[in-house]
Amino acid sequence: MKKLSLSMALIMLLVGILSACGGSNSSEAPKNKENQGAAENEKGEEEDKPITLKLAIWGSESHVQMYNDIAAEYKKIKPNITVDVVIVPWADYQQKLSIMVASKTAPDIAWVAERMVPQFMEAGHIIDISKIAEDSAYQMDDFITSTLASFQKDGKLYGIPFSTPPLVTFYNKTLFEKHGLKTPMELYEAGNWNYEELAKAAKTISNPNEGVYGVQFMQASSGWMDNYVQALWAAGTDVLSEDGTEFAMNTPGAAKAFDYLKELLDSRAHTSLGEQLTFETGKLGMKLENVTRVSAYNANATDFDWDIAPLPDGEQPVPTPLGLAGYSIFKGSKHEEEAMEFLKYISSGDSAMRVAEFFVPQRKSVLYSDQYLNQAPHPSAETLKIAAYDRMEDGQFRPGHPNWVRIDEQVVIYLDNFFTGSMTAAEALEEMQKKIQPLLK
Q: What does the alpha-carbon distance between residue 327 and residue 346 come to, in Å, rounded to a whole number?
């Protein structure tokens, strides 16, 4: 009996100890749950805190409306995010954004163009967004590789392109047929589309007495880089060395390319510089422009038949010049993570397709979709691919430099001297080198 009572006593004592331990744990558990709940509430409140992102563009009211519509869709996913789209005039855009960074009022995200990127990167105005590639759902491999080049430096990525238009040859089929000429596309298909054939066709078509001209590369000397750089590449030269430290244009090839243009001007096969003749008038045989002009010409060039072709080749194959506009996140943003998420949203999926209503897309899935290729009635999808889109993978951006504005000023000054006959091409290029080389150091 005593043994049983002792055993029962020991059991009761052990149960008491365990109950005490259990009681201690149970009293701590609510406390931990309270702490956890408070932390989760705090995190939730942080995530729900209203945030306004500022997106700066140089575009039109139509572009603003597009981004407002995209932002409204995004708000359904992220109710606390509001996007304020602001227009900064193109003429002041680069300078104003630099001032805004200095005054800590910069936008979170902004459009940037190819000429701005080197300066903004050099000055530290835009931030490294390389981690965007870590998101497998973002599908970085969907981008055309060449279109990312301007945003890459030292293994880092400073922006995402949304518009990468290639340069093409627009031509007036009606004028070519009138003169019994093979069109640029027919010459291309026969392997004979080059600058020599372009000059022949331009001189045949041109009739200044009737206000008709064979070709227009540019309307003023200031347009030399936009629509004539490919002729320099065709002549085997470039504006700057690959690392941007040397002026590379003082070569016989560049002199030959400028002499070619001046001969077209002097023969009046090219419109006079300063003359505002446009392609939709039907009085230009050819005009070299970004393929984005297709939509405008579908709307306005309706009194004659026209089409597009690739750029002509020179003494060597010519990479197609690409334009660039992209999104960058600016230094000083108080909402870098939120800006990154919105950048991903506007540059992928349905948003990327919507942006492609205005711009040549950077994603292959959008560029080669039936929806994009067939959005305009003309040219055909096949022609668009041959003349423009299939050439983007091997495309090349026009040169840029942090000191580009001053470099461009000097080129224009001496081009004007050359075009007016006060200097030869070789003399003008020599003077350019004297003025520009110090700007590259």
A: 9
Whether residue 414 contacts residue 428, with contact meaning beta carbons closer than 8 Å, is answered with yes
φ/ψ of 236, rounded to 5, equals 80, 25
Instruction: Give the CA distances from residue 132 to residues 123, 147, 159, 224, 313, in Å, rounded to whole numbers and listed in that order.
Output: 22, 16, 10, 36, 38
Instruction: Please state whether beta strands 284-290 and 81-87 pair in parallel, antiparallel, or not at all (unpaired).
Output: unpaired
Beta carbons of 295 and 265 less than 8 angstroms apart: no
Sign of CA dihedral 102, 103, 104, 106: negative
Cβ contacts of 249 within 8 Å, gap of 6 or more:
232, 237, 238, 239, 240, 411, 429, 432, 433
Which residues lie across from 306 on neighbouring strands? 172
Q: Under 8 Å CB-to-CB from 341, ≥6 apart: which residues?
A: 78
pLDDT one-digit tens code per residue, 129-185: 999 999 999 999 999 999 999 999 999 999 999 999 999 999 999 999 999 999 999
Reduced to 3 states (helix: H, G, I; strand: E, B; else coil), residue 230 is helix
Q: What is the pTM of this model?
A: 0.84
Q: Residue 294 corresponds to which tokens in the numbers above? A: 């297709």
